Structures
1.
Amino acid sequence: MSPAEPMNIDSLRLRLSGLSVYRGVVEQPLPAAFLRLVLTPCPDRYALAAAFAGVFAACAGAGCTENAAAEMEKAVLRDDNPYTRLLAAGKTPPESLERAALMDMAALKELALLDPLQLLAALSPEAAADAPSLPLWQPGEPGPLFSLADDESRRAFLSDYHRRQGCGIYTAYAAFLWEGGMTPIAHADPIRLEDLKGYELPRQKVIENTENFLKGYPASNMLLYGDRGTGKSSTVHAILNRYRSEGLRMLELPKEGLRELPRISEALGNLPLKFIVFIDDLSFDQADDSFGALKAVLEGSLSARPDNLLLYATSNRRHLVRENHSDRQGDEVHAADTMQEQLSLSDRFGITVTFLNPGRAQFYEILDGMAADRKLDISPDALHAAAERWALSRGGRSPRVARQFMDFAQSRLLRGLPLD
């Protein structure tokens, strides 16, 4: 709407009051502030000023004072409603539902692109005189959804977007922590596969299995085991970052939550996205019987694991149940059966990938790759010698030790200091 066009504020109020499919959008901070402003009684000058300032405050809180429309569009795309769920599942919504959704969309788009001065004048010509004393946000440029001019284009965009990105919180976040429910991780590890050096063969197994999973081919639960600091967890994190745009999401599950795996499977099984349930540093004590819950989900449970869920676990132990010599000398009549049950847990992962500490040559290759990425001006011989001394003081070579040394070395070189 150009500034010269008169604004039909009553029509906008009616359409916003009648939001149906996307009604949840106006429960989010910025849309809620916009709605309060539009619905504020016109004669109340002070209430109008407060509501106007409330929109600016919501924009400031979201970091969008120069582009309020972008934040409004995010709110629309993140909404979880019957229409977006059908689109995410690749289904065709009923015509009546789609018509209502697109009507809501048109009203929210108009709200997002409102010029604040024009809006203030439409709400109350008398209040327009207060404009110099009120903070002004900028609508900014419309995003890929709000820039579309017709319903057919919006329909096609939303169908493709939700099929790839899901709906609700799954459009905004890729990583979650299970705390009795799905808790989004706002700042997930940004590590990329390209940042990880060495271990190409074991890492390729993880990549291939994940790609099979995403393409709907048979895929297996995976156990990544080996020495500390060899990049097992980083590999899993980097897998998420590479395949997030293809519909992959990850749920980190503490070992204490293993008994809730059936509940998690039920909660995620009906969603259109693919989920990796990630269990880091997995091992059990003899007295810990929670491994039974994991074993049942891996294989043998009456309730099958849903097709859109895999388990990836890391461990420093090939046999996940810790065993002491005294455990073999107990008074259990069928001790061998118990031992076999404990050892069988790791075998229930379809694929086991091993990450062992690198030898000298591989350690140097990892260092050289990191130095090249960081564009460090240092000879390989000097780098290797200093890194060997660093590793010796920290218990041996590993990719983690290499990264820690490179952080140290880069800081020293940037400051013009020697490595030793």
2.
Amino acid sequence: MINNQKIWQGISKKRHNSAFFIFVFLGMLTAFGPFVTDMYLPSLPAMTDFFHTSTSLVQLGLTASMLGLAAGQIVFGPLSDKFGRRMPLLASMLLFLAATLACIFAPTIEIFIALRLLQGIAAAGGIVISRSIATDKFKGSNLAKALAIIGAINGVAPVAAPVVGGAVLKVTGWQGVFVILLVLGLCLTGACIHFNESLSAARRSREKLSRTLGLFKTILQKRKYVLYVLQMAFAQAILFGYIAASPFIIQQHYGFSPFAFSLFFAGNSLAIMTGAGMSVKFKKLETCILVSCAGMLVYSVLVLAALAGQASILLFESLLFTLLFMMGLTFTAATTLAMDAAREQAGTASALLGAAGFLFGSIVSPLVGMGDILISTGITFVIAALASGVCGVMAVRGKKPVANQAARSACWPQIRI
């Protein structure tokens, strides 16, 4: 009788993944988050009419996907350490395909929201496992270079996703966006089949999965780590509040088309990326945190005043652009300082750091749609900026300054827009 396992092992040994394939594959996986959350943003107002529902309820679809992206990272990270990268990744892709196909034919907004939760969980598998594959394949300076290349690919996603979504919406309904996501999922599933396992059986974790909970408890006892995670999560609350509210503000209040909105969104994404890049110019990361927190608070108040006063699109967009730039400053610095505070449990710390932002985003997204969206969005920005500033000041106080050199290569790939 033929041993199927030996046959599969033989096929795996013959298959070789080129460096080009690895870079593109991992770049597409890390870009999954922006495409799942950002690509259908231009269609949110249209979906409100399609499902005959409220703005806040449609935004719950965005909330559900963020909850899934947060929870999925906690689930798929430990699974990939224990069972290897390939099988959990393939399972996440198959789940993504099923959830995306079902989204296209969702009959009610409630079913759509539930499916978006599954879609987010599945997409999270690609995000968290891609970082693990890079660590498996590369070491030292080569790992930093690999992450930088992957980060560059990922940096295009937040700009491209809403533009593609807006273009698709010009010729199809909102379902067309999910058809594109389905095609992307099919391509990645094919790449998963071609991918050669990067974590050998000898290197896999032999610990029980339940032990992972103990690592989370240990990390949550590190005060500095928790404060920096909270500081960044509140900053990301501004980001996700903006993501949820901007389609309605730009399209319904200011009267722009879905495609024009996608161009606004792409420009604002560049503001965040520029801020993240400028953070390496600071000699001390703590200084960068304080400047970012102060800037977010000042410009959140100004954005609230502009929205409440029915300001012109030029003034509103100028203030919003600067607010997002200030927010971008904190991403690299907060990531570096948080990971430095939990160096001994880097894998678990990375999972929690990534999950926290999506968790806060899931809370904020429906809040900006309550009542007058202009006022609720501005108030949400101010509260989140104030909370981020409090956490940032508490974290920096009494902290030995951390050199900024490490942020130049190690943290840029972890920026998420």
